[in-house]
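Thread amino acids onto this structure.
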């Protein structure tokens, strides 16, 4: 059926349906109810303020109302704002503290207005929470009055259960479907609320999605999250969780204080006196006492001891059962009624018993430990005992149960642990009655269940490899017939097809008349040891062969090195130059290195002086040294300068050796001009001793040999004077593992300054007093001009 159209041709609007009218009516009624609630909460605050004025001014109700109106008019604020301020001044509670902190921290142009608005919001939220019948109404009041102005979009109130699980008690800004999904969080599930409960402190997350923690509303609201634990007397009853739609930047202290104050409001419906049965209910106390008295171990009922401000200070020992065993040996009447830290003052140590009791009382999460050190004072002497400890919370009481480990228990535990590690199983056979006792480890070795009948020694051969029958027979004759201790090894064949190598030892025990009573012994699984010995035996020959090859290789390397580089050499005189050299090989033959020295008169009448060090040790380093040293001698015959010689030697190291790198320093001394031209390839500079002064020559550029194919080397010039001494050396003279190279070079300069007339004695002195600890080769070349 078509709707009638007006003359202009446009469709006529559809009349409003009954469903639409009903929805509009419901929304209007909800708004009216919210306005009525706000008005009622405002009136409640005003009435509280009137009561404060009546008490302080000793006036009537009418006079208090007039006085409130008059003061509000004079201050230029509403009566509701003035009422909140009066309540803050009188209450001196967390909300008033928060308002004062906000007033002190704000830098706005009208701080009093902002503080007044904050006071009204917090007091309105408090009034709504107190008037609410359940946590659902508390959550709605907190979100509407106090959290929405902070930019929050949702709130959840979690009840902390005795087992540290969480139950959703109230929510606002979240869907009912999401609330049903998160109505219960089991113990051990890591959520922001549980983290606040277990850590007993506020948790501020800039972004829930970035933190990676699951929580209610995470699919729709993944921005900032704050969870704050709340409770009294050291016990946490609830956790307030607040959600923001966007990432939450760091908040100032006054905002944090507001959230903490609201968390206290959220715990009103969970306060201990309102819980089922009540913590001080006589029936609840008697039930716990009856439970304690049935326990087979020491059990104490602890009650929180609070100070005047309601903060937890200690625990009162309310009851101890008949099984009470004190670590200090005191009877139970000496500790019942006293405070825990008075009876056990050493329990307050870091991470000790007190911390665990306080945590259980606060969070409800039970604590169990098989081995916990408990220290008590015995005549002012600390006595530490090991105990199994269990701590649980029952309403606002804490149940502490322990069992002291006596010496026999500790020794049995130690023996069991040793048997498990050593794979040892013990047994006892009674010769008179025939009864056989096995421990659990022996059943495991045989692959049997603990209910299966144990196997007597006489039937040992039935479960062993046939080839071991002779050894087993000899063992049984020794133990069962000759009545002497015996042992043997055999291959156990288990029913599951697994074969194990076992060693068994046994010895008989006798009564006072010398008659045998029992046979006690042990089985040990030595399978891993057996196969290790087999593997070792298989590799011994190969290892011996390898060692022989290595020794031969080292011997040949050492012979090669000593043939080219003898440890000492007669002093040499050329023209007016006195030359001395020293070479000290490594103490360990396998560390034979590639250090070299050379001093030779060239056909040009110049004197070639050089030292070098090939990287590495062994035959490769020694052969590389031979190549470079001989190549340098041949190249020096061309008459080229030191820089050119090192450039050519670098090509030799790069192309004509097997990836050899080396440092070197060489000099060409001209007797006619007394000038020494020198160059270096990554080597330490020479040391000049002149007129008692010792100094290193200025460092010139030069890359180590073999690193790059194309390298150039700078030259230095030094004109020698009479009695000048020049030293060239390799780093084996000064290197230390615990010192820097600069430190070692400084120490060498101080040693070189020691006054010694003879050049050879000077080199011997340097070798003798060298502080190097790398056991590397060392070369020194010294020259002295007469």
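Threaded sequence (786 positions):
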């Amino acid at each position: 059926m078509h709707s009638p159209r007006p003359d202009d041709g446009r469709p006529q609007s559809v009349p409003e349906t009954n469903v639409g009218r009903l929805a509009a009516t419901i929304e209007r009624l909800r708004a009216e109810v919210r306005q009525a609630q706000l008005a009622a909460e405002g009136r409640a605050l005003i009435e509280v303020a009137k009561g404060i004025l009546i008490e302080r001014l000793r006036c009537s109700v009418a006079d208090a109302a007039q006085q409130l109106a008059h003061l509000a008019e004079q201050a230029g604020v509403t009566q509701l704002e003035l009422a909140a301020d009066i309540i803050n001044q009188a209450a001196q509670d967390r909300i008033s503290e928060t308002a004062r902190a906000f007033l002190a921290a704000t830098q706005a142009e009208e701080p009093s207005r902002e503080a007044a608005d904050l006071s009204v919001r917090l007091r309105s939220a408090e009034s709504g929470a107190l008037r609410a019948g359940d946590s659902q109404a508390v959550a709605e009041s907190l979100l509407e009055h106090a959290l929405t102005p902070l930019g929050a979009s949702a709130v959840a109130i979690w009840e902390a259960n005795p087992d540290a699980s969480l139950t959703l008690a109230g929510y606002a800004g979240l869907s009912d479907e999401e609330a049903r999904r998160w109505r219960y969080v089991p113990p051990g599930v890591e959520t922001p609320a549980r983290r606040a409960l277990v850590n007993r402190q506020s948790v501020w997350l800039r972004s829930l999605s970035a933190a990676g923690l699951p929580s209610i509303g995470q699919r729709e609201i993944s921005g900032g999250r704050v969870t704050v634990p709340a409770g009294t007397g050291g016990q946490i009853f609830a956790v307030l969780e607040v959600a923001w739609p966007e990432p939450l930047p760091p908040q100032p202290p006054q905002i944090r204080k507001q959230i903490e104050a609201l968390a206290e409001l959220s715990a009103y419906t969970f306060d201990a006196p309102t819980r089922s049965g009540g913590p001080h209910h006589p029936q609840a106390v008697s039930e716990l006492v009856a439970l304690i008295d049935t326990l087979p171990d020491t059990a104490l009922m602890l009650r929180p001891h609070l100070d005047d401000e309601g903060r937890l200070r200690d625990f009162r020992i309310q009851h101890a059962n008949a099984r009470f065993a004190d670590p200090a040996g005191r009877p139970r009447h000496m500790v019942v009624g006293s405070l825990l830290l008075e009876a056990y003052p050493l329990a307050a140590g870091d991470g000790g018993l007190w911390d665990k009791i306080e945590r259980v009382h606060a969070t409800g999460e039970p604590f169990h430990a098989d081995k916990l050190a408990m220290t008590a004072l015995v005549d002012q002497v600390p006595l530490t005992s090991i105990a199994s400890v269990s701590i649980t919370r029952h309403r606002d009481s804490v149940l502490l149960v322990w069992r002291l480990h006596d010496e026999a228990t500790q020794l049995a535990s130690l023996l069991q642990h040793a048997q498990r590690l050593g794979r040892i199983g013990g047994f006892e056979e009674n010769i008179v009655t025939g009864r056989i006792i096995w421990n659990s480890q022996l059943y495991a070795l045989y692959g049997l269940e603990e209910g299966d009948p144990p196997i007597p020694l006489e039937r040992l051969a039935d479960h062993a490899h046939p080839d071991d029958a002779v050894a087993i027979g000899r063992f049984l004759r020794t133990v069962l017939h000759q009545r002497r201790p015996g042992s043997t090894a055999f291959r156990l064949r288990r029913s599951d097809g697994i074969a194990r190598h076992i060693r068994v030892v046994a010895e008989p025990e006798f009564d006072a008349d010398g008659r045998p009573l029992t046979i006690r012994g042990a089985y040990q699984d030595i399978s891993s040891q057996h196969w290790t010995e087999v593997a070792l035996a298989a590799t011994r020959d190969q290892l011996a062969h390898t060692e022989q090859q290595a020794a031969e290789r080292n011997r040949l390397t050492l012979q090669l090195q000593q043939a080219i580089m003898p440890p000492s050499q007669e002093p040499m005189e050329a023209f007016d130059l006195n030359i001395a050299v020293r070479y000290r090989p490594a103490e360990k033959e396998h560390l034979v290195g590639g250090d070299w020295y050379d001093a030779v008169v060239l056909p040009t009448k110049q004197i070639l002086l050089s030292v070098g060090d090939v990287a590495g040790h062994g035959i490769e380093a020694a052969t590389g040294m031979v190549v470079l040293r001989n190549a340098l001698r041949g190249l020096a015959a061309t008459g080229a300068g030191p820089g050119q010689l090192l450039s050519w030697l670098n090509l030799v190291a790069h192309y004509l050796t097997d990836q050899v790198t080396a440092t070197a320093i060489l000099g060409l001394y001209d007797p006619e001009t007394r000038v020494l031209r020198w160059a270096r390839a990554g080597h330490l500079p020479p040391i000049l001793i002149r007129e008692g002064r010792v100094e290193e020559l200025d460092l010139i550029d030069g890359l180590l040999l073999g690193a790059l194919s194309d390298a150039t080397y700078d030259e230095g010039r030094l004109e020698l004077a009479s009695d000048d001494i020049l030293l060239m050396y390799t780093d084996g003279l000064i290197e230390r593992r615990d010192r820097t190279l600069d430190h070692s070079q400084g120490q060498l300069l101080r040693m070189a300054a020691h006054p010694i007339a003879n050049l050879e004695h000077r080199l011997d002195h340097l070798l003798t007093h060298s502080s190097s600890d790398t056991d590397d080769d060392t070369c020194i070349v010294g020259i002295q001009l007469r």
